[in-house]
Design goal:
This protein is α/β, with parallel strands linked by helices and about 1000 residues long. An 8-stranded parallel β-barrel has the order 1-2-3-4-5-6-7-8, surrounded by 8 helices. A 7-stranded mixed sheet has the order 23-24-25-22-21-27-28, sandwiched between helices. A 6-stranded mixed sheet has the order 18-17-16-19-20-30, with helices on both faces. Helix 11 links the parallel strand 4 and strand 5. The protein is globular, with a radius of gyration of 32 Å. The chain binds flavin-adenine dinucleotide (FAD).
């Protein structure tokens, strides 16, 4: 630590504080409604959560009825009273009766609108230009930003671009009237003598609806196309453009976009282009160094705004949820340290880098000032920026001390304005916020100005030792396989490499695997790529009845030793298999991309789910293996334990060709039941992955037998066979019911009743309530309905929309679906690929024809590849609950849209089919969400998120009614279905003497 510099920073900070003593940001001013409410929120966490959620839904509450209902639902406590702080300003009258309620609603509405307005410079271009001119008069400069909703379609991206062109046009007319702020820079026509008067900030992701980290190049091009005209306009006006940095998933795209725009032949001459770096990201120091290096190599001056970052909560929650390493620093002082370190790098390179310090933290600001001074950085090579509506004392102090400050001024509609407002409220009220600590909590100046390194060391020393992970049965607790993170370059490059590698091994013959040996048959079926039938992946041998006899014989024989093999050994086989699959995860995924048309992430998560099943069931078996003492009666010992049932026939589907197959097989195997496994024929090459894995894991001969075959030849034969004790099936309702029917007939020589576990599909609905967040709802419905071409049993095939929001939702949904890319799954730019095979294509095409007859087609995408198993993505409106399109499982990208007048009616429609698998609700009404929990009767209900992708252990999966029999996969009851419970009772009393057990408490 440079102690001299450190002392200067502290001194500078103290002066800063003195120059603004007695002032507080308006957001903390308790003389006003916002200040009072913020004060209450900071003291009361529950109120804070409710308040922010209410602010979030507020723009959707357009009627008096919905406003009053939401106020009641969000804020009425046990005493049914809305907290008085919220009603403040509504007059002194005690409340009660309709009139006073109306006054209260009006007051709350206007208070929240005023709070929103505090952070935005205007709601339209005219207001914005007026507001900016006023700020300039007060001595500030600005950077203007157009608030935008999440861009779900290209139409919306066009509108966002046009919004910028419009505001630039409006400002262009005005700017000549604006006098430049004086400064030392030498050019009197520019602010401070060197910087453009007009400065614009832009969120790049809003310029392209299909931007995603898996497709960096496509995303950069998509954004660039719309940014180009904006930048041309900026240059034409002699203005400045800053590309904002958003959440981590857009980081690489944004960096590349910046480099490309900055170095484009047309634009190289123009220096006024900036990018934002976020100090809270662990990788930012490296990014800063690389960016500077790049600028040196290209010999191009650059500009960087450094901030800590606005998405800390989101990034940390997402990382935890998805089992990723934290990309952000986890201790606040670490972000502060990083800020100072990165600021130093940028200031050191001031010959090339124009630096903007974006912070309200007086320590960070003072550090910047003193470092700049110590390095003799010319005044015109750096500036200070704060957000409009926040930290008024800081901006005033900056004007006093530095003589220059730029305000980041968002403008636009109230709906995106509220999302922005919530981010600002969160930022202001967070415990870690410098502003809160300084101006609301009244922390000591010396503490506020402390070197963050010292703060960090103190905080770390005060932290309790992290708890050691507790082992259960010698194993660490179950943890889901991490979701794939395409922000990591290695994850992106691994896929094409794995697909290439797999392709090199295609074309052979895949044998059966019976009793530990490979078995060839004369009968083979080719398995092909559904995107290109000419690409044959393998010829797969087909089991006939003789092979089924042999497999069952082997399994039956293996049962005698496998059932008595200690559960621990059986579990170890699963854990080994999990490790093998983990090592081969990309390659296993690549097989699915080619054989069944799964997109990269879909395939990766399928394999991940398979790994989860192996890990979870291994642990579950160890749990169930412990005999349980039943009852507490003395003189008697009762013990319950489980034994395996016998040979299991596993019949698995093609849509989760690895996960479901290995889930069912491993459940049977770990519980001691040998398996005869029949994969779906169109995914039998992926099915063979199970052979490779279980062989390597060391399963004894006969415990796992791989028998693909024609259903017409061996399907019924396998199910009806007397040696089969149980059947695990996942597939269509028709086949599931047929299996149950056949299994109920006792065959000659059969020794026990067959158990059938059948997961049979659904007709899943998502309800869109009238207060749903459409940014979220649209994207999640698109994903639920069309990811993996709608071929998940959990996929959404009905969307039921409340009348008041119907038109807005449908317009955005259809626009979003018009723009998603359709093509080969192996190309990451595509969202949707081919169906699984030609027969699926035929069936779904027939349903599309039916949709045309039963309803009104809202969208039928014609632009699909001519070759391969593609069908048009289809959305059909005017569907009534009784229509076949609303009742039958389709298993393809066909979405029926239905209208409901009330939430009750929406629930009736949702429950009105024979199926009960998954469902979803998008609503911000606590009462409606509660009602849905009780009355939306499905196996897996998802509130405010997509309704697919259940995770092992976290979301045990499965339905009822015609969706299936048996308990949920990946849940605590699943393995019990593969076991028969036994109880042994022993009389432990001999001649009146009974042993006392350790935990007997009656004596
Ligand atoms: C002009 C301007 C432009 C901006 N543009 C962007 C932009 O393009 N992209 C963007 O993301 N943000 C942007 N922001 C928002 C900015 O990220 C926040 O305002 C800023 O993080 C607040 O930091 P601070 O230094 O003012 O306050 P401080 O109170 O010192 O810092 C708060 C920040 O610390 C970080 N933090 C909080 N808790 C922790 C923790 N436990 N561990 C580690 N770090 C933590 C978070 O980043 C949080 O925002 C901009 C801000 C300004 C002023």
């Amino acid at each position: 630590m440079d102690t001299q510099l450190e002392a200067k920073i502290v001194e500078r900070g103290k002066e800063f504080f003195t120059s603004i003593s007695g002032e507080a940001p308006s957001i903390f001013n308790k003389g006003w409604w916002t200040g009072k409410v913020m004060d209450w929120a900071m003291k009361n966490e529950d109120f804070k959560v409710q308040l922010f959620r209410f602010v979030d839904v507020f723009p959707y509450l357009n009627t008096s009825e919905s406003l009053s209902r939401h106020i009641r639902e969000y804020f009425s406590g046990d005493d049914h009273e809305v907290p008085s702080v919220l009603k403040w300003g509504a007059g002194k009258a005690s409340f009660g009766g309709k009139l006073t309620a109306k006054i209260m609603e009006k007051t709350i509405r206007s208070n929240i609108e005023n709070m929103g307005r505090q952070f935005i410079v205007g709601q339209n271009t005219k207001e914005a230009v007026k507001g900016l001119a006023k700020l300039r008069k007060e001595g500030f400069t600005f950077t203007v930003d157009l608030l935008g909703e999440a861009t779900v379609s290209e139409e919306e991206a066009d509108a966002y671009r046009d919004g910028y062109l419009e505001v630039l046009d409006a400002i262009a007319e005005e700017q000549s009237k604006w006098k430049a702020h004086a400064g030392n820079g030498g050019d009197p026509s520019m602010d401070w003598g060197y910087t453009p008067k007009v400065n614009v900030s832009i969120k790049p992701s809003a310029l392209y609806s299909q931007a995603k980290p898996v497709d960096i190049e496509g995303s950069v091009q998509g954004i660039y196309k719309r940014l180009e005209p904006v930048y041309r306009k900026v240059i034409e006006m002699g203005a400045f453009l800053c590309i904002d940095m958003e959440s981590l998933k857009y980081r690489e795209i944004t960096l590349e976009l910046y480099r490309r725009l900055r170095s484009a032949q047309e634009f190289r001459h123009y220096p006024h282009l900036s990018i934002v770096l976020q100090a809270y990201l662990r990788c930012t120091e490296q990014d800063a160094e690389q960016l500077v290096q790049w600028a040196r190599t290209e010999d191009l001056p650059i500009a960087v705004r450094l901030v800590k970052g606005a998405y800390w909560d989101m990034e940390s929650v997402l990382a935890k949820q998805n089992n990723w390493d934290f990309p952000v620093w986890m201790h606040k002082p670490e972000s502060d340290i990083a800020f100072e370190r990165v600021a130093k790098i940028l200031l050191e390179n001031h010959d090339l880098v124009y630096f903007a310090c974006g912070s309200h933290n007086i320590r960070s600001i003072s550090a910047t000032m003193e470092m700049a001074k110590a390095m003799n950085v010319p005044e015109e090579r750096y500036e200070f920026q704060v957000l409009y509506g926040m930290a008024e004392p800081v901006r005033k102090g900056l004007l006093n001390v530095a003589g220059k400050v730029r305000l980041y001024c968002p403008y636009g509609d109230i709906i995106p304005g509220m999302a922005y407002l919530v981010r600002r409220l969160l930022e202001n009220t967070a415990n870690e916020s410098f502003l809160r600590q300084s101006f609301a909590d009244g922390a000591e100046v010396a503490r506020l100005m402390e070197n963050p390194q010292i703060t960090l060391e103190r905080e770390l020393a005060a932290r309790p030792e992290p708890k050691q992970e507790e082992l259960v049965d010698g194993l660490p607790p179950f943890k889901n396989d991490a979701m794939i993170d395409f922000t990591i370059p290695r994850c992106r490059t691994a896929f094409p490499a794995a697909i290439k590698k797999v392709r090199e091994t295609t074309g052979g013959t895949i044998p059966l695997f019976i009793d530990g040996k490979e078995v060839q048959t004369d009968d083979v079926i080719p398995t092909t790529n559904p995107a290109d039938y000419s690409e044959k992946l393998a010829d797969v041998c087909q089991a006939g009845t003789a092979e089924i006899d042999a497999a069952l014989e082997a399994a039956d024989k293996a049962f005698l030793t496998w059932r008595d093999t200690p559960a621990k050994e059986r579990a170890e086989c699963l854990l080994k298999a999990a490790e093998i699959a983990r090592q081969r995860q990309y390659e296993l995924s690549a097989w699915q991309v080619l054989e069944i048309g799964k997109q990269w992430d879909q395939a990766f998560h399928d394999v991940g789910e398979g790994i989860d099943f192996l890990e979870y069931y291994a642990r579950e078996m160890l749990r169930l293996d412990k005999p349980r003492r039943m009852g507490r009666a003395p003189g008697e010992h009762n013990q319950l334990f489980y034994q395996p049932k016998g040979v299991a026939a596993v019949i698995s589907p093609w849509n989760f060709p690895f996960a479901i197959a290995i889930g069912m097989c491993s459940a049977a195997i770990v519980t001691g039941n040998p398996v005869v496994y029949k994969p779906a024929s169109i995914s039998s090459r992926v099915g063979y992955n199970l052979v490779e894995i279980f062989r390597e894991a060391g399963l004894p001969d006969g415990v796992f037998n791989y028998c693909p075959g024609r259903s017409s030849v061996m399907g019924d034969y396998l199910i009806e066979h007397p040696k089969v004790s149980m059947i695990c099936f996942t597939g269509s309702m028709e086949v599931g019911l047929r299996i149950q029917n056949k299994a109920s007939v006792v065959q000659a020589g059969q020794q026990q009743c067959k158990r059938v576990i059948a997961e049979m599909g659904g007709k899943n609905a998502i309800i869109i309530d009238d207060d749903a967040d459409l940014d979220e709802a649209v994207l999640h419905v698109v994903y639920s309905a069309f990811a993996f071409q709608g071929q998940k049993c959990s996929a959404c095939s009905r969307v039921i929309v409340l009348d008041p929001i119907y038109d807005r939702f449908i317009e955005r949904l259809v626009a979003a679906c018009e723009d998603i890319n359709i093509g080969r799954a192996e190309d990451p730019e595509n969202y949707m690929g081919p169906l699984a095979d030609a027969s699926c294509q035929k069936t779904v095409s027939e349903y599309i024809t039916l949709a045309e007859q039963e309803g009104t087609i809202l969208l039928k995408r014609k632009d699909i590849p001519a070759e391969g198993a593609y069908v048009p993505l289809t959305i059909v409106g005017d569907i009534k609950p009784e229509h076949r399109i609303a009742q039958e499982e389709i298993f393809g990208p066909v979405l029926a849209v239905m209208r409901a007048a009330t939430f009750d009616e929406a629930l009736d429609i949702a429950n009105g089919t024979r199926f009960a698998l998954t469902g979803g609700v998008f609503s911000r009404s606590p009462e409606h969400l509660e009602q849905a929990r009780k009355e939306f009767r499905v196996g897996n209900l998802y509130l405010n998120r997509n309704n697919t992708g259940a995770l092992v252990e976290r979301q045990p999966f499965g339905g009822f009614k015609m969706s299936g029999v048996g308990s949920k996969t990946g849940g605590p009851d699943y393995l019990l279905q593969f076991l028969d419970p036994r109880v042994v009772t022993e009389n432990t009393m001999r001649r009146g003497f009974a042993p006392i057990e350790e935990d007997d408490d009656w004596i």
